[in-house]
Automatic annotation (TrEMBL):
Ranges for domain BTB: 254-356, 420-481
UniProt keyword list: ATP-binding, Golgi apparatus, Hydrolase, Nucleotide-binding, Repeat, Transport
Keyword GTP-binding: no
Organism: Pteropus vampyrus
Protein name: Rho-related BTB domain-containing protein 3
Assembly behavior: Interacts with RAB9A and RAB9B (at lower level compared to RAB9A-binding). Interacts with M6PRBP1/TIP47.
Subcellular location: Golgi apparatus
Function: Rab9-regulated ATPase required for endosome to Golgi transport. Involved in transport vesicle docking at the Golgi complex, possibly by participating in release M6PRBP1/TIP47 from vesicles to permit their efficient docking and fusion at the Golgi. Specifically binds Rab9, but not other Rab proteins. Has low intrinsic ATPase activity due to autoinhibition, which is relieved by Rab9.
Amino acid sequence: MSIHIVALGNEGDSFHQDNRPSGLIRTYLGRSPLVSGDESSLLLNATSTVARPVFTEYQASAFGNVKLVVHDCPVWDIFDSDWYTSRNLIGGADIIVIKYSVNDKFSFHEVKDNYIPVIKRALNSVPVIIAAVGTRQNEELPCTCPLCTSDRGSCVSTTEGIQLAKELGATYLELHSLDDFYIGKYFGGVLEYFMIQALNQKTSEKMKKRKMSNSFHGIRPPQLEQPEKMPILKAEASHYNSDLNNLLFCCQCVDVVFYNPDLKEVVEAHKIVLCAVSHVFMLLFNVKSPADIQDSSIIRTTQDLFAINRDAALPGASQGSPGNPPLRVIVKDALFCLCLSDILRFIYSGAFQWEELEEDIRKKLKDSGDVSNVIEKVKCILKTPGKINCLRNCKTYQARKPLWFYNTSLKFFLNKPMLADVVFEIQGTTVPAHRAILVARCEVMAAMFNGNYMEAKSVLIPVYGVSKETFLSFLEYLYTDSCCPAGIFQAMCLLICAEMYQVSRLQHICELFIITQLQSMPSRELASMNLDIVDLLKKAKFHHSDCLSTWLLHFIATNYLIFSQKPEFQDLSEFVYKELAENITGASTQ
């Protein structure tokens, strides 16, 4: 399939000394990212004595596989010397561009009076673009006397250009210079729009001819009628806080046990969760040193409240990770230790439900002074280094966001060896992780680490079928409850990984990302993008993404004329037709 463009007129000083054109058309073909190919000049045997060529022919490729033929005629003598050729050029054109210099009014009136009527008779319902090129050098108002010709040498006004466009039913553009903005985005955007319209019209005519032809033996496409409503994808609600809160009660992957001053076990916990909200626990578990924190109040709180016991005779909890028994921590403050289970539940819930914490502590401590003392110690544990502790009123902070959203969060430990108790081996590289987070956020991981599997007893776990970048994005979602794919391809890879580990909410997020990206693309970008939409559809169906596959089918039906030009679409047209027929028929029966 090809597109034929005819450009008429001289936009100014558009020739070098070697007669090589360098004007509007050549500049566009050389700069447009959608056009590629080599040019070749074709000189006609014109009887004119002008040293310049009558017209120049450019041949290139547009939108990947569409042949683009451009005839640039800088002089109007072709209508006088070779009417047959000029009539065939205009009659066979898909798009016509008429260009002129705004500072050459004499030539403008000559063209308007002598050649525009000829062009109007030869036009065959094709789009026309009027391009006024240059910056006006004389902005004085011309004489309005109908018999006066004193303004013949002045610039062409905008009103005159618009009037000419109205006579031809054309689109009027003013290009003040031949730079990237005016050529690539302004002129190029309008021209490429008409190119896509021409392709759609030719494709439609081609499909009609196929239907009329008895020699067509392929599969006939179904009627691509849109249903009343497109499939709607709704994002699944987050259960991030509940996942981490449930981790405290399930007692899986425990790596720290708290004891009271009498060496009786109080509660089990996880280092990674505690360190995510508190620099006190970072200091206690050697994630950071006193020199890193540089806050005497945090150092003092750690020393006053906790002590690590390494006595082997001390009774311990069940083993958390392979070969690593849980760390034993003595809670020095008896009142704080009595309320420790409520404090940990408050921390695992995101450390923002202060009013509930105060009520739970009051049930265990009758004295209001003891309650205030314990609450104050909790505030000290959650203190940010170098900042004054301003959590004075618990009720004031009832509606604040959980501490997972602040600077001390689980993202700090993503792909870092600190406190890591499992290492994934992917594509020859290693990625450290934390079993407690994986178990809390992914049911497949929980079954893998707690069942009778090899992974439950191994520290190094190989991962196959997923790239390192995709797996890191998957872990980022588990740790932070958010992800930001770099593009549609990575989003599909992440969707496949989420389906493999059965994380349904991440699948929905990837589906919404792909749909949003495709919906926001203009037609010219859809035509030129290096993305196999059919392969995307097949992957969505294979990995049980029913909502996305249904949406992609309707998206293909809507933009069928664009996608049908792609070679990969032609190869798999039978698959697409079959899916469209099944889904659209099913939608109509419902």
